[in-house]
Amino acid sequence: MRRDTTAIILEKKEVARDHFRMRMSCSWCAGIVRPGQFAHVGFTDTDDPLLRRPYSIYRIDAQSLEILFQVVGEGSRMLAERQVGDTLSVLAPLGTGFGLPPTESTALVVGGGVGMASLFLLVERLMEADVATRVLLGARSANFLLCRADLDGLGVRVDVATDDGSEGFHGFVTDLAAHVLDDEKPQNPYAYACGPTAMMCALSKVTSDRSVPTEVALENRMGCAMGVCLGCVVPVAVDGGIVYERVCTEGPVLDASRVVWEYRL
After folding, report:
1. Is residue 59 within 8 Å of residue 121, measured between CB atoms?
2. Stretch(es) of the chain classified as CATH 3.40.50.80
């Protein structure tokens, strides 16, 4: 059951240039957040910006939730300037989350940049469920590889891809995914992904060409986050036609094969 309340910032840390982790009080979320769900966050002391912003729930514990975000506009810049002890308006948890894969599957979790914000909690749940799991972590350079220490702490295998070759596989993380699927042939692969739209589009082609089921977490702009304003709709294929589904309610997690990617780019 979602709640709209005031949360206190408990911790804030810059983890890469213009990338922040922020932990805030949220005791009611323990036990009800599904991986892939998000929080709608706003300010308690100003109505500029008027609308709240959606942020994936990165981690959760008995007393708090944590988000991982990049400064990309005025709202996220203002959030990054807030300090421990400040209060925020938080509506959470929202949206549909990831599901667990079929029995005896190998989970291939593909994160591009700050897209790992939607995936860490999923990896944690997969490990708890004893699902064979492998993470492919992509970034433009080694300086922007996020969540590596947290993932190592879970004991999951992590393979890195950087666009400039500064660490790990030299190339896009989608190319690394194709290599893993073609050369290593994991048992009954089931893919999960979040990252830039172009990355998820490319991964969808990689996985569909190999008949690998894939769930993606979309990151659309949204106004109300309650399914009313229709500002976050995405085209999906249904019975040979196209309909629009709301990322805030039907998503943010969708079957990648249903998304009409050419309309997204």
Report:
1. yes
2. 106-218
**Angle, CA of 115, 60 and 34, to the nearest 5°:** 70
Cα–Cα distances (Å) from 204 to 42, 212, 240, 248, 258, in that order, read: 33, 9, 19, 21, 10
Which residue in this structure is represented by tokens 């690394």? 176
Greatest alpha-carbon span in the chain: 54
Class of domain 3-94: mainly beta
For residue 227, count other CB atoms closer than 10 A to its CB: 17
Distance linking the first and last C-alpha atoms of the chain: 34
Distance CA 157, CA 134 (A): 5
Q: How many CB atoms lie within 10 A of CB 76?
A: 17
Low-confidence ranges of the chain (pLDDT < 70): 264-265
Closest Cα to residue 116, out of 219, 185, 213?
219
CATH architecture classification, 106-218: 3-Layer(aba) Sandwich (3.40)
Instruction: Supply the pLDDT for residue 29.
Output: 82
